[in-house]
Amino acid sequence: MLVKKLTVQLPRGLQAKHTTLFIRQAFTFQSEIVLGKHGKTTSGTDLMGIMDLAVEEGDEVILMTDGIDEQVANQMLENFLVNGYIFKEEVKDVMGSLKG
After folding, report:
1. Cα–Cα distances in Å, from 60 out to 5, 13, 18?
2. Percent of the chain having pLDDT more than 90?
3. What is the pLDDT of residue 96?
4. Angle at Cα 63 formed by Cα 53 and Cα 2, nearest 5°?
5. Where is pLDDT greater, at 83 or 40?
6. Which residues of 49-83 are buried (b: 16+ CB within 10 A; e: fewer)?
7. How far apart are CA 85 and CA 98, in angstroms?
8. Residue of 26, 50, 55, 98 with fewest CB within 10 Å of its CB?
9. What are the structural domains, with CATH classification, of the chain?
10. 3-state secondary structure of 2
11. Does the pLDDT at position 48 exceed 70?
12. HSE on the CB side for 78, CA within 13 Å?
């Protein structure tokens, strides 16, 4: 299990558009993904749960990933929350380092 504390840098935070993009990406992983804020947690694939967290730009959140692809999931979702984008090349880099 990987657990990271992050400061969200998405403009306007996890509003509907960003939440949908986060969930869409979370569904691509086999690992369980959990997002938390102020002691409240929800599945990384639960639209209403994430919206209920009311994550805004500058908020501190906890990203937890647990499973076979937890490192890739954690890195990509962290990158999205902090930088607002996900690069497919990063997956190749992380997967290559796991095999090596």
Report:
1. 7, 11, 16
2. 73
3. 53
4. 155
5. 40
6. bbeebebeeebebbbbbeeebbbbbbbbbbbbbee
7. 22
8. 98
9. 2-92 (3.30.1340.10)
10. strand
11. yes
12. 17
